[in-house]
Design brief:
The protein is built from 13 helices and twelve strands. The chain has 362 residues and is an alpha/beta fold. Helix 2 links the parallel strand 1 and strand 2. The chain starts with a helix and ends with a strand. The model has no long low-confidence stretch (mean pLDDT 91).
Amino acid sequence: MLVYRRGWSAQPVFEIEQGFTPKTKISIVIPACNEEQNIGKCLQSIIAQDYPKHLFEVIVVDDHSTDNTAGVVQAFNNPYIKSVKLADVISPDEKTVAYKKLALSKAIAISNGELIITTDADCVAPQNWLKNIAALYEEIKPAMIVAPVDFTSNGSVVQMFQSLDFMSMQGITAASHKLGLGNMSNGANLAFTREVYDRVGGYKGIDNLASGDDYLLMMKIKQAYPDGIAYLKSQEVIVRTAPQPDWSNFLQQRIRWASKSGKYNDKRLTAILLLVYLFNLSILLLTIYALFVPGHWLLVLVALVVKTITELDYLYPVARFFKKEKQLIIFPFLQPLHIIYIVLAGFLGFIGVYKWKGRKVK
């Protein structure tokens, strides 16, 4: 955690040069499954971008929604927004477990942008989102750009927990890219060039897994372009989305994320994830041991205090970036939940069975 703190601080904040005029044509692709309540706000935030309208398009792929997602998209009646039903562009015998990857690939196939940006239907982007991504792209021409995502919170324990946990992962993402300790990304705010996407074969070869549309594609690009991944650290590009509404959905989401951990071909990241898992498991086992064998509670307390202080030291500058310093007040009280969640999600993620978007995935 101390190393991650150093990496976060070393990751420079990006600023657009004065007088920047974008030239890059951008295609924003959004897979959507039963997002009637969210897709409207997402598209409204994109329409309101401070970016030349003729230089971007939005392609929404309706992934077998049973609600009015497609109707909400079509109601915008905007020439820069395309609506595609996944069921209409796949053949009946085209079976898959990776519906999101399939939806993304179909959208990218009909896109005409030089730069592809993926986001989710429940995300809201800030006004200068596209301008900042284009500015970094035109300055250094990376193969892929990883950018920050943030969870909102309604103040409930379950949402505050997710907000802090996800913010911690976002900080580690930025630090890892700077220090070369493995790469992470999030498909809610990810950009890559169409040329690079085509050269690495898109999602071919990784479409046997339901999850990993972001990380696994990034690793394919990383292999072909070792120095081609850039991280964009800027408050101007933070995409925000709501966390899961309850503990059950939260756990299913984390199991889905953890299910791709066995597919990492980055030994450094695998070693770090294993270390984190074993550390949390050791505290849980020590606590169970102390319940039956008196005299070990002091050791449990010391482990919790060391864990909490170290993580707070790392989290404070990250929380300041995301403007969430006040949330850190409850962080120490959430440690028992965090330990149980890490152990449970890691174990169930290894098994790899979960439910998502009404589908059971194995």
